[in-house]
Amino acid sequence: MKANISVLVSGGGTNLQALIDAQKSGIITSGEINLVISNNPNAYALERAKTNGIKTAVCNKKELGNAFEDELIKILDENKTDIIVLAGFMCILSEQFTTKYANRIINVHPSLIPSFCGKGFYGLRVHEEALKYGVKVTGATVHFVNEIPDGGKIIMQKAVEIKDGDTPEILQKRVMKEAEWKILPLSLEKVCKEIINAGE
Ligand code: GAR
């Protein structure tokens, strides 16, 4: 038995790609990515899913407005989702949503939480703020998602060195390569294994 994984994306999808690669190379064996949902119809992540034969869906927050989360829940439940991965998903989910899927949503964040996290800290902004502050070490965190943005229980973290001359773009790439793309697949496998073991 494998846990049924749905991945939520908004943009380029390099973290989604890391998960697909990890599934192919046998790092993820306790779950299977069966669905990729984007709030952005133009997300390149959707192309990555299609190229790999994974079902896709678009749930457009701008068009759906207040009905956005109801539609998201409908798609997730129709597909019998066991575990939801936020992989560069740029929408904040309500308490109602996070409570419904308690301990069933994980997120990757590009800093060492509790630094540079919470409302307004996403994507490149996180690295801009880390450089502005002058920290010498940053990294990435994978955590469970609850009603507090970036506030759920931490699953894994990995530190990454900041180097002289770093720009936000250079730092973002290093954090992805050295931390996010490694700890997201490892964390997902750990959580899937726990879900399967709990069901036996
Ligand atoms: C990643 O760095 C991810 O950690 C970050 O956005 C990027 C998405 O890249 N997520 C957040 O900031 C969420 N708060 P990707 O689409 O190439 O995976």
Describe what this molecule looks like in 3D:
- This protein has one domain: Formyl transferase, N-terminal domain (Rossmann fold).
- The protein has a seven-stranded mixed sheet, with helices on both faces.
- It is 42% helix and 22% strand.
- The chain is built from seven helices and seven strands, in the order E-H-E-H-E-H-H-E-H-E-H-E-E-H.
- With 200 residues, the chain is of the alpha/beta class.
- Strand 4, helix 5 and strand 5 form a beta-alpha-beta unit.
- The chain starts with a strand and ends with a helix.
- The chain binds glycinamide ribonucleotide.
- The site of glycinamide ribonucleotide has 16 residues, from helix 1, strand 5 and helix 7.
- Glycinamide ribonucleotide (GAR) binds next to helix 1, strand 5 and helix 7.
Please outline the helices and strands:
Elements: E1 3-9, H1 14-25, E2 31-38, H2 44-51, E3 55-58, H3 61-64, H4 68-78, E4 83-86, H5 95-100, E5 105-109, H6 124-133, E6 137-144, E7 154-161, H7 168-199
Parallel strand pairs: 1-2, 1-4, 2-3, 4-5
Antiparallel strand pairs: 5-6, 6-7
Helix pairs in contact: 1-7, 6-7
The protein binds glycinamide ribonucleotide.
